[in-house]
Specification:
Structural class: mainly alpha
Order of helices and strands: HHEEHEEHHH
Number of strands: 4
Largest sheet: 2 strands, antiparallel
Bound molecules: heme C
CATH class of the largest domain: Mainly Alpha
Number of domains: 2
Strand order of the largest sheet: 1-2
Strand content: 5-15%
CATH topology of the largest domain: Cytochrome Bc1 Complex, Chain D, domain 2
CATH architecture of the largest domain: Orthogonal Bundle
Distance between the termini: 80 Å
Length: 215
């Protein structure tokens, strides 16, 4: 006499379900991987010249003005790449020159271990402010006037070389022995980072007075 077994206690049922779920999850992860790779692929100088928006623009975005604007459609701020502007008194860095400058900045950021105190794109420590959108911090305007510098990049480079002589917050950043050339690279690196569309990250940035264009 065969006993009727409920499907829920049948081993074969669970084995098959596990195989299907694993298979489906693997396909989904592969698809998501390719989707993300497309989303984070760096744009080119041609994209910038033709107004093609990429989440991660070409390094030559340092040749352009970057603002931060509220997108009602997306419900958060997005970086907007505007007209051309000079960077350290120069215009039109080629893509190679801009990439070299960014690399110098990235190496300095790694060598000086900025992530010991700061976060970059959310990674790092929480002692000091997140640097993802530091370039767009309205604080630099007042800072320029205070240091008698004509441009934001010069004010930022001066801060990076001598932060404890020119504190902007109550909590101070130590002098890390950053050279003028490294400071220039770091400013390029941070300017580029601010142009990355991070889906509105970091959230608290928008609460800063004057950080969002037109508010
Ligand atoms: C020992 C901790 C520490 C390290 C390491 C450090 N910082 Fe800072 N940084 C701070 C603190 C604290 C502040 C806030 C004080 C201020 O603005 O005067 C700050 C502020 C800043 C600001 C201004 C941010 C803003 O928009 O208000 C920038 C830009 C910056 N740091 C960049 C860097 C870079 C680049 C490095 C690595 C080369 C670095 N920091 C390493 C502690 C640190």
């Amino acid at each position: 006499m065969s006993k009727k077994v409920s499907v829920w206690t049948d081993n074969r049922f669970w084995q098959r379900s596990a195989a299907w779920v694993t298979g489906f999850a693997a396909m989904l992860l592969i698809w998501l991987t390719f989707d993300s790779m497309g989303q984070i692929a760096m744009g080119t100088d041609n994209d910038l010249q033709n107004g093609v928006t990429k989440r991660v623009p070409s390094p030559s975005v340092i040749n352009y003005k970057i603002t931060y604007e509220m997108s009602d459609k997306r419900g958060h701020e997005v970086p907007v790449i505007g007209e051309k502007e000079t960077f350290f008194g120069r215009d039109d860095y080629s893509e190679e020159e801009a990439r070299a400058l960014l690399n110098l900045g990235k190496l300095a950021v790694q060598a000086k271990n900025c992530m010991n105190c700061h976060t970059l794109l959310g990674n790092g420590a929480y002692y000091a402010p997140d640097l993802t959108k530091a370039w767009l911090d309205p604080m630099w305007d007042g800072y320029m006037a205070r240091l008698g510098k004509d441009t934001k990049e010069e004010a930022m480079a001066e801060f990076l070389q001598f932060p404890s002589e020119n504190p902007s917050h109550g909590r101070m950043m130590p002098n890390l022995g950053i050279t003028a050339e490294e400071a220039k690279g770091i400013v390029a690196f941070l300017k580029h980072m601010s142009s990355i569309d991070t889906n509105g990250f970091p959230r608290n940035f928008s609460k800063m007075q004057g950080a969002i264009h037109g508010k």
